[in-house]
Specification:
The chain has 291 residues and is mainly alpha-helical. It has 11 helices and 2 strands. It has a two-stranded antiparallel sheet.
Length: 291
């Protein structure tokens, strides 16, 4: 039982962590929390569910989905974020504009697809067939999801140490000051939304075989990803992934020891308790930015 809880927690926690990492990618150069992130993930999952009709191989379909969602995110940046930041880098109108964009995505998805959830089969040689090793039950696809989540965080860590990462930290620290030093915050914002959109598409691709792809899945992932962001700490990709795992395990334990209907209640109660003890996130003030 404990092993099953840990496996489920790590797998679904990886998804929550990836949602939170997507928040971080977009937040760094803009100080914007993208409340349309969940719907971008939903678009990715729904597009992936539609690929068998198009007959595309799984790998090619995944890349196409990531590219399409990245372009949707770029549209969001142009119409919902940049106009707000152009007026003031400290403006908070993006709260309304990103929420409005998420509603537009939900409406568009409702017109493109039915309300019936769709099943997505993992790519060969992966499967959701359960294996048992030393009393631990898991599928090859579950292992792949956790590995991909770790790899994404590792790759973003490498990017953070590059010249682009240094420029992003400069814009995050002082957008106007970075502009005076020859850095183009608008171009960096555009790149971040492209990367964040591609990451949202990847998260949707990964989530589709585990969760039934549906037009209503975005909100739940948004909320739980935001919980991982709050617990792990904004800007800390490793912290939010660990927080996602922690919250995933707590959620799975709540489903087993309390009730499946109460697992979300248990999750958010634990989140509040953690934030009362560590209001700055798991790693708190130990995380520093060097520009």
């Amino acid at each position: 039982m404990i092993a099953d809880i840990l496996v489920a927690g790590l797998v679904f926690g990886s998804l929550y962590g990836l949602v939170a990492v997507g928040f971080n990618v977009l937040h760094r150069p803009t100080n914007v929390v993208n409340f349309a992130q969940g719907e971008l993930i939903m678009i990715g999952a729904m597009l992936m569910a539609a690929t068998p009709i198009g007959g595309l191989p799984w790998g090619i379909a995944a890349v196409c989905v990531m590219a399409i969602v990245a372009l949707v995110a770029l549209v969001e940046e142009r119409v919902a974020v940049t106009p707000v930041l152009r007026r003031s880098s400290h403006a908070v109108g993006w709260v309304i504009t990103t929420l409005a964009f998420s509603l537009l995505l939900v409406e568009a998805a409702g017109r493109l697809w039915t309300d019936q959830p769709s099943t997505v089969v993992p790519p060969w040689p992966l499967s959701i067939r359960v294996h048992e090793v030393l009393g631990i039950r898991f599928s090859s696809y579950q292992v792949a999801v956790v590995v991909v989540a770790v790899a994404v965080v590792a790759l973003l860590g490498v990017l953070d140490r590059s010249r682009l990462g240094t420029a992003l930290r400069a814009v995050a620290a002082d957008r106007d000051g970075a502009r005076l030093r020859g850095i183009d915050p608008t171009a960096l914002t555009r790149r971040s939304f492209l990367l964040g959109g591609a990451l949202a598409g990847l998260t949707g691709v990964l989530a589709a075989p585990l969760l039934l792809a549906s037009v209503t899945m975005g909100l739940a992932l948004l909320i739980k990803g935001f919980a991982a962001l709050a617990v792990g700490g904004i800007g800390d990709n490793r912290g939010v992934l660990v927080a996602g795992w922690m919250l995933g395990v707590i959620e799975a334990a709540g489903a087993v020891f309390a009730s499946p209907g109460l697992q979300s209640v248990v999750l958010f109660a634990a989140m509040l308790l953690i934030l009362l003890i560590r209001p700055n996130g798991l790693r708190g003030l130990a995380v520093q930015r060097h520009v």
